[in-house]
Every structure is written in C-alpha cells, then in structure tokens.
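Annual report, structural modelling task.

Input specification for the cobalamin complex:
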Amino acid sequence: MSEALQRLKQAVIEGADDVAAEAARQALQEGVKGLDIVNSAIVPGIQGAGQLWKENQYFLPDVVMAAEAFNAAMAVVRPALGAEGAPKTGKVLIGTVAGDMHNLGKAVVIAMLQGAGFEVTDLGVDVPVKTFLDKTAELQPDILGAGCYMSTTMLSIKDILAGLQAAGLRGKVKFMVGGVPTSQEFADEVGADAWGKDALDTVAKALKLMER
Ligand code: B12
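The model returned the following structure:
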C-alpha cells in the first residue's frame, strides 16, 4: 500500500480529519482510483477504530472522531466516485432505520450509487417507518433502501415491508436492505428484493433490480 494510503488509514483510526483529507488528496494526485482509496484505506480505517473500541482501547468519543475523519476523507474522494454525466439509471430512496444513528456505510453506498448514475434521495438517520412509507408514496423511487446497523434496530425492516404492503406500495418498489447485522438470510427471511453486502455489491444488485 502506498505511503499516502497508509497515512490515510491511520489518520481515520486516530480521528485526524485534516491529515485524512490531505492524504486522500495526495492519493488521488498519485492516480489511485477513488474506489480503491475507499476500500483500501477509508473503510479499513473506521473498522480499525471499531476494533480498538471492541478491545476497550477506544472510548465512544474516539470512534466519533474517527467517523469525522472518515467523512473528511470521503468529502475529498466523493467526486472521484461519480461518473460525470452518466445516464440516469434509476431513482433510489434511502435511509437509516428508526433508533439508529449510523450513517457512514450509507454514505459510501450513496456515493457509489450516484457514481453509477442513480438519482439518490437520502432520508438521513433515525428515520421513522412512516417517513419511509410517505416518501415512497410521494417520490415513487424504483428502489427503496434501508440501512440498519444494530441488531436492536433490525425489526424496523419488517415494519417497513409490512407498511409498504398495507399501503399497496410493495409491488411498486424494489426493496434493498444492508448494514452490519443484516445478511442474505435475513433479507430472504423478511422478503427484501436484495441485500447489499457492501457498496459495490449494492450497486451491482441495484442495477440488476432495474432490469426486472
Ligand atoms: C462508526 C461506528 C459508530 C459511530 C457512527 C458514526 C456515524 N456517523 O455513522 C458512533 C460512534 C456515533 C456510533 C455510535 C453507536 N454505536 Co456504533 N459502530 C460504529 C462501527 C465502529 C463502524 C460502523 C461503520 O461505519 N462501518 C463502516 C461502514 C463503511 O461499513 P458498514 O456500515 O457495514 O456499511 C457497508 C455495508 O454494510 C453496506 N451498507 C451499508 N448501509 C447500507 C444500506 C443499504 C440499503 C445497502 C443495500 C447496503 C448498505 O455497504 C457499506 C459500504 O461497504 C461499528 C462496528 C463495526 N464493525 O461495524 C459500531 C457498531 C455498529 N455500533 C454499535 C453500537 C452498540 C453503538 C452505540 C449504541 C454505542 C453506545 N453505547 O452509544 C451507538 C449507537 C447510537 C444509535 N442509536 O445509533 C454496535 C452495534 C451492536 C449491535 N447491537 O448490533 C457495533 C456493531 C459495535 C460493536 N461491536 O458493538 N457507532
């Protein structure tokens, strides 16, 4: 791994946002592709912080700082993920489920979907089931995505799907789910149309759903 990428990963772990942004800029200047910067340094950086937290070497504020450095680096790399002028592929509505404030994974997914030409509306974090339903009715997206990052917030996914069914919207929108505690088995169990393992997988599956 190049010096810039190593420095970037370490800066995210340590929550040094200025260093993270500068190292991301350097990596781009050296010709490293945006997606490679995300996958080889930015995401491993936040995972490294998460690991230190798990080992009780980090406290929550340390992880918050790592998240800020993650965002600073993503802000630099994001334009390099987007294919300027790509033909519009479809409309995606996405949000993090109620009770859940995690949004870094969703941010990567959104950047990659936009890069693939999707028009994405982000509902943010801690989104009530009713908002998912109301916005689906209003915006009529091709795909509705729900991110869920804690085992305690997974039940919301079932509520969203039941709500879509009750509102007569289930047949009109494809539903994708993703986030740490989710899996293909979970997606099958709740009746989602697809599960996104990571951002690349999400884009590939979203494109497939658009073919149907
Ligand atoms: C960073 C982090 C935080 C940050 C979040 C900052 C932010 N703005 O998002 C902060 C410090 C704020 C935080 C807070 C908390 N956290 Co936290 N956090 C993490 C950590 C370390 C990393 C998550 C992350 O960003 N990963 C990096 C991204 C890129 O990966 P990702 O989320 O998996 O996303 C990828 C895929 O899942 C997929 N994807 C993501 N979203 C979507 C959406 C769709 C639709 C699709 C298709 C695909 C998809 O593509 C992404 C890109 O490849 C994880 C540990 C871990 N290993 O995951 C814990 C973790 C998720 N947190 C946890 C906990 C417990 C909490 C707190 C409750 C802690 C507390 N005591 O307050 C609070 C939650 C508050 C709340 N109500 O939400 C637990 C959850 C455990 C559980 N119950 O399941 C974890 C697993 C840590 C642990 N091992 O205990 N956290």
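The chain is about 60% helix and 10% strand.
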